[in-house]
């Protein structure tokens, strides 16, 4: 079942694109935009994360940090981050536990691939409560960024 607005955000620790552990608790006292995306180097994922990169000042002005999660390996995420000059952490949910805990995991994706993160967005406030939740079934769509910014305002 997907996490929804009003829920306490499930905690996690994942390996980042820099091969360091990152925990949600590292962001206690901060607003977080938590994005799940299906796969690095795909067109819509690249578009989505580059939109966030290009609009980072807006999120900084809203006192929010961005974290993006996929089931790709940390090595793949490191290359993807470098290739796209992304300016926020990419986290590897290689074991699919966090995607499952947030209710954002395709059991079957395209080409018979199983266990891929659904494109999703969560706004987590400074106390760790989810203020916005959007889980998309169609991987070709991107989250409602206006609604995310509104939840942060």
Number of strands: 9
Helix content: 25-40%
Provide the spatial order of strands within the biggest beta sheet: 2-1-5-4-3-8-9
Helical segment count: 5
Based on CA atoms alone, the radius of gyration comes out at: 14 Å
Mean pLDDT: 94
Order of helices and strands: EEEHHEHEHEEEEH
Distance between the termini: 27 Å
Give the quaternary arrangement of the chains: single chain
The 3D shape can be described as: globular
Describe this structure in words.
With 153 residues, the protein is α+β, with helices and mostly antiparallel strands. 27% of the residues lie in helices and 25% in strands. The protein has five helices and nine strands, in the order βββααβαβαββββα. The strands form two sheets. It has a seven-stranded mixed β-sheet with strand order 2-1-5-4-3-8-9. Strand 8 and strand 9 (130-135) form a beta hairpin. It is globular and about 40 Å long. The mean pLDDT is 94.
Topology at a glance:
Elements: E1 13-16, E2 21-23, E3 31-36, H1 43-54, H2 56-61, E4 64-70, H3 74-84, E5 90-92, H4 97-101, E6 105-106, E7 116-117, E8 120-124, E9 130-135, H5 145-152
Parallel strand pairs: 3-4, 4-5
Antiparallel strand pairs: 1-2, 1-5, 3-8, 6-7, 8-9
